[in-house]
Recover the amino acids of this structure.
């Protein structure tokens, strides 16, 4: 199964049009959050992306809520928004969790969750799935420009316990477009340019 992975387009039309163009080459598109900026622009961004007819999985970033993403995606029939939930596409289960984890320093506009809340949301993540998380696992593609790890311990524990075949994340822009392997799991911080990745069963 061939996937197109992206995150953190932040209202940028050029990025969105690149994603739309690449989407015809793949089986499933995965958007790992931050479609808008500061809780604005989500409807406009989705209006550009909804030209994608390929089945698409989305999770909210910290720049939009799950409810805002669901509402904006109503007119995008090929897309489904996930948050503490899953969907099966092409015989593969995709499980999603959105928002900033742990809570960011950005203030009240940011859609954030504590590690404890994230653990609850991740409880039903199945073994061997594709995990789509806006926040990266702690210690994996999560370093700020100052070298500080900003990822989620709850997401990391899920990777350790559930061995997803793939983790798609974003949030930490400095690691956008990078990937690493952790045991049997490939972790990809997708970034806004879009990465085509072949999942091997």
């Amino acid at each position: 199964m061939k996937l197109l992975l992206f995150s953190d387009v932040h209202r940028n039309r050029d990025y969105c049009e690149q994603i739309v163009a690449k989407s015809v080459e793949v089986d499933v598109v995965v958007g790992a959050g931050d479609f808008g900026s500061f809780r604005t622009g989500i409807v406009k961004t989705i209006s550009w992306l909804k030209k994608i007819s390929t089945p698409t999985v989305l999770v909210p970033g910290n720049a939009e809520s799950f409810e805002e993403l669901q509402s904006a995606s109503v007119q995008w029939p090929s897309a489904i928004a996930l948050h503490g939930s899953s969907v099966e596409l092409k015989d593969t289960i995709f499980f999603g969790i959105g928002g900033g984890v742990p809570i960011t320093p950005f203030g009240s506009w940011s859609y954030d969750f504590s590690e404890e809340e994230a653990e609850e949301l991740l409880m039903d993540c199945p073994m061997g799935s594709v995990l789509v998380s806006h926040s990266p696992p702690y210690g994996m593609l999560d370093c700020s420009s100052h070298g500080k790890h900003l990822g989620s311990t709850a997401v990391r524990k899920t990777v350790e316990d559930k061995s997803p075949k793939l983790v798609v994340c974003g949030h930490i822009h400095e690691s956008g477009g990078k990937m690493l392997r952790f045991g049997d799991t490939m972790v990809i911080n997708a970034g806004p340019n879009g990465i085509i990745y072949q999942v091997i069963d």
